[in-house]
């Protein structure tokens, strides 16, 4: 078997993009060719050296299985698009939560309200724009649901969860160091806390500790989706490797 044929069989079917597959092929062919040259320098004939180099690298199915197992969930070319998607997600969140014209329009009302309450000697009413008691807002939606529209309840509950799901999904997909639920938990917590603080400090929204709980829950839900997707991908790769091994053995 020629070296090119051997490398083609190994690379064919690897779980990666065409460009990444070509990179793996070029690198593997370079290593096999280098070993062949070393064997020829030791006195082996060209065909014998090629056969011995292939033998030392191992059977096609075994090497393919090892390469497939070592491949990242997304290769470096696809990763660029996912990284761009993550940047778009951060930009969209920044706009919706801090930069939208609607928030800055409501800011004027919030500042005027606080100023009016202070002028009338009722500073306690300036705290209607914050909630520091866990579950207070959630219980209010449950036990006094008749005071709110279905849209308001869904927007504030499901919206806060859905908002942070991409964070829990994309971070571990892009960075192996975030493939840990504790890191995702604290990242979601600190990101949500920063947003809540900025909204309150700039009078762009209310500070609500229940939003923190829902945001963190959303981040963990996104991480759960990542774990389920990763398990599915690795299981499929294992099946493909077993199928390839049984076909070539």
UniProtKB/TrEMBL annotation:
UniProt entry tagged with the keyword RNA-binding: no
Keyword line: Membrane, Transmembrane, Transmembrane helix
Presence of the UniProt keyword Membrane in the record: yes
InterPro entries according to UniProt: Perm_prefix_1 (IPR047928), Teicoplanin_resist-assoc (IPR053150), VanZ-like (IPR006976)
Domain VanZ-like: 90-227
Transmembrane regions: 81-99, 153-175, 184-204, 216-234
PANTHER family: INTEGRAL MEMBRANE PROTEIN, MEMBRANE PROTEIN-RELATED
Record protein name field: VanZ family protein
Species this chain originates from: Brevibacillus agri
